[in-house]
Amino acid sequence: MKKQWFTISVYSENNVGLLNRISGIFLKRHINIESLNVSKSEIDGVSKFTVVVFTTKEWTRKIVAQIEKQIEVIKAFYHTDDETIYQESALFKIASRLLFDERQIQNIIKDSHAQIVTVSREFFVLAKTGRREEIDAMHDLLEPYGIMQFVRTGRIAVSKAEMRISALLKEFEHK
Amino acid sequence: METLKVKHIKTENQTPLRISGAEALIHCLLAEGVDLIYGYPGGAIMPVYDELYKFQDRLTHILTRHEQGAIHAAQGYARVSGRVGVAMATSGPGATNLVTGIADAQIDSTPVVCITGQVSRHLLGSDAFQETDIIGISTPVTKWNYQITKASEIPQIMARAFYIAKSGRPGPVLIDITKNAQFDELDFSYAPCKAVRSYDPLPKPDPRAIEAAAALINAAKKPYIVFGQGVILGQAEAQLKALVEKAGIPAAWTILGLSALDSNHPLNVGMVGMHGNYGPNLLTNECDLLIAIGMRFDDRVTGDLNTYAKQAKIIHFEIDPAEINKNVKVDVPVLGDARESLEILLPKIKKNRHEAWHEAFKKKYAEEFEVVIKNDLHPTKEGLTMGEVVEAINQATQSKAVIVTDVGQHQMVTCRYARFSQTKSNITSGGLGTMGFALPAAIGAKMGAMDREVVAVIGDGGYQMNIQELATIFQNQTPVKIVVLNNDHLGMVRQWQELFFERRYASTVMTNPDFVKIAEGYYLKAKRVVKRDELKASVEEMIQSKEPFFLEVKVEKEDNVFPMIPSGASVSDIRLK
Question: Domain map of chain B by residue range?
């Protein structure tokens, strides 16, 4: 079966040990976590893990089943890129003098729709939100001029289809 | 959630009980109906042991001689009684010594709650004396674990621990309690846990799936049932029997399913898997419908998946959604408790007999009998076989005993030949294959079923992995019967070396001590059998003994267990010799 990108969304109780449990499931099967994001979700007190993997659908299905089996996991889903709206964010720290010495940089900022977060005498910081390839392209353009620091977040994603967590939790309340 | 007043606590004028965390823990155990725990004291769990001392009239603590002994005893107790086993240990090495048993309980779905002491909260992460991250270590092998750092957490977390351990597909739970939480006081009240919102232990069977299953069963010409421990854990033995009889379906078992259906039942066709029976393995690839009930298609059962039951439709009755389509793709998964599902299924099943299909199993059995079974049970050669010892135990116990086995050749032979007339009677380390399991598990099994005969059958290798538990047997005068089948080898590894490594016997020859003297050193009655004519009377004497009894049987050194499916081969490639 062919490998592709999958976004795994895990809704869980906010529990300290759960990240360890979930990452262990990937580790055991030698499946690399390409990116990981943990945040609050649309429901009070419910956390959301967003995990990106590059593997087969079969493996993704099995991994999601193992994740759902964990006591504190409310529900887990997996989606292909076509089934999600997803983004990443990146920060670039660049020497301020380059703004004046290298006029091309201003064009790069404009063309890539990046935001200037802060400017000081020594450096300025650019923020870019978008798809991985857009951020990579901007990185490649800036690299020749020298990037002092670079960091990128994990993917955050929402699914096009509904993930019925609130209904699930309501059902439980009525049991 | 409603708060139940705990019966055994005198709560005068309704004020909550102000007690220490350690005492609260004992009240939690009592409220969960625990009257027996296994463990080993040490620094970080001492406040709890101090309370155990005060409560010894209501809660018995069995001091094993190693924490691994404690957890295996708790497993044996749980498996035989269907209750939650409890093991306790201190922090650091005490906790890590539990890990093998926890992993064993996880893979064999055994409900146990482990309680470990931990250094005080302010010392966590400081590499304090006997500090170890047991939560991190046990995470991959527990159904759930939790570190309690505040006394006030104890009632709710303990209630949750017991609920999670025993509900749905059971498993081990570890609760780590820092020493400050044991000393500090809390206002105690206890409410049993009835649900956890992120956890659905009992998925409701889908009526459409059951309809589809019934249709397949009613249409099948050569249906075949393979059942596992899910039948025992789900208390579905009667429903399984009813299905087998109504639809006339031959049924085989995995080693953890063994004893769920009477060994003498005419439709019980034997064991599947690597050393299972000939027919049950071969005919897996001839049936037109495979009905898997409460089993998980372990690789030791299926052999090569690419050639496993490819011709058949497959129905899978299973409680754990993660097991559906994990190893074998099935046509009809029926998610849910085995008993509940089978009860809905049964009225939809048409009566049938499938006589010609039974004949196929009988024919294969006759072939296996001629080449293997006859020589195992009624040998004509001089040396004793493991099989004839098991047969002698069957006769002496009228097939009513609980039989506990370790791991290796003796285990396979015992599972093949032991006869059972009651459920929850075969206690063995299946999934993990833990040598050293049997002796302590037999202690727990006996204490979990005091009215039953408990016979541990162990190899000379595994016996020495937890031999120190003879002291636990002696101290408690636990009347278990211990049979060591001594071939002076790590027999199963030696067999593989003979068959697949050109007889290079790397580290499988054992120079053994005098096992009888060792048992006698623990003041146990002990006997050795070296000749066939001594066997029956010695086994009889052992079974008649009211006290613990050790019996060493010197068996043939280089016997092999057959039939055998070579590792990675197809069930069709099963070899009789």
Answer: 12-188, 207-360, 382-554
